[in-house]
Amino acid sequence: MNYSFVRAVNFAFKDFWRNIWLSLVTVTVLILAILSVNVLISLNAISDKVIGSVQEKVDISIFIKPDIEQIEVANLQSRLQKMSEVKEVIFISKNDALEDFKKKHQDEVRILEALKEVEKNPLVDSLIIKANDITEYKNILNFVNLDENQEIIKYQNYTDHEKIISRVNSISEKVEQVGIGITAIFVLISILIVFNAIRVMVYTRREEISVMRLVGASSSFIRLPFLLESILYAIFACVIAFVLLYAIFGAIGPYLSVFLESYNFNLIEYYNSNFIVIFAAELAIAAILSILSSAVAISRYLKI
User: Fold this and answer.
1) Entry pTM
2) Which end of the chain, N or C, is less surrounded by CB atoms within 10 Å?
3) DSSP notation for 93-160
4) CA pair distance 200, 296, nearest whole angstrom
């Protein structure tokens, strides 16, 4: 290993601990910036999962009139299945529907007794239609509502999940905008803090730098410790931020689990599976921002 680089690393660590309070302030601001970025990542992951889950539950239920021949139902199912907008069409017979109904209400005695009194199956055959995309349900509904199809359709039930998805998107976008604003503020403060920290380091080491110049130290050797110190800020900030992040997840995990249970989503598992990518990206960005602000401070206050 290059001896000059080892000495530069040593100088960087010495400066970091020599001005520990300034270093702590710098790292703290970077931590807040990193945490705010992860709040955005978490909110985006949750909103994507919620929207995806709602989209999966969207369908059109068509209930067939009694005494309609099965061949007519099969014909309608076939025509629906041929539509480019349709992902799948599921036929549910009235007998299967009745069995499902009984299972869902197996603990409700009154409902089961009422079914026995009716004696015959009160339900009808149905078709469940799922589209390839949420926006394509309108075209499918237009087809379903054609007069030729209404002759065999008793009624259709379409829950307008599109409004729910739109609402979730709207809330997500507003939260994201606020989050981006907060993150931008922390990033700007971080740049200014790192800039000021390096400026102070240059000032405190001014006599040492003068001696280094006199003995013929190169410009790159004099600059390198300051750049390495800015990288130290980024490394410490990222490590501490992720420790805090997992601690926060552990604290709010039970509450998040209640909310996300129906969506089969776990935020900690999401971070665990994407940890390397997220951590590496945030460390790289934090390091680049620190290096750039340090480089500006060095070029302005370190006259070599």
Assistant:
1) 0.70
2) N
3) -HHHHHHHHHHHTTT-HHHHHHHHHH-S-----EEEEEESSGGGHHHHHHHHTSHHHHTTEEEEEE--
4) 13
Rounded Cα distance, 158 and 57, in Å: 11
Whole-angstrom distance, CA of residue 245 vs CA of residue 280? 15
Per-residue exposure over 233-263, b if at least 16 CB sit within 10 Å of its own CB, e if not: bbebbbebbbeebeeebeeeeeebeeebeee
Q: Which of 158, 193, 213 is the last residue of a domain?
A: 158
My answer on whether 185 and 223 are in the same domain is yes
Query: How many Cα neighbours within 13 Å face the side chain of 57?
Result: 14
Question: DSSP states of 62-84 as a string?
Answer: EEEPTT--HHHHHHHHHHHHTST
DSSP state at residue 270: H
Strand partners, 131: 86
* DSSP secondary structure letter of residue 266: -
Token output for 188: 């700007």
215 and 152 fall within a common domain: no
Answer yes or no: do 135 and 209 share one domain.
no
Q: Which of 133, 158, 183 is the last residue before a domain boundary?
A: 158
Strands (DSSP E) contained in 5-115 are 60-64, 86-92
Residue 255, pLDDT score: 75
- Are residue 70 and residue 49 in the same domain, yes or no? no
Length of the chain equals 304
Residue 198 φ/ψ, nearest 5 degrees:
-65, -35
Divide the 304 residues of the chain into consecutive groups of 10 and give the mean pLDDT of each group: 69 78 84 86 80 75 85 88 89 84 77 72 84 80 84 75 66 75 79 78 68 66 79 90 89 74 77 90 87 79 60
Tokens linked to 132: 């390839």
What is the C-alpha separation between 41 and 59, in angstroms, rounded?
Answer: 30
- Domain shared by 179 and 111, yes or no: no
Kindly state the tokens that stand for 104.
Answer: 């869902």
Q: Which domain holds residue 9?
A: 3-54+164-301
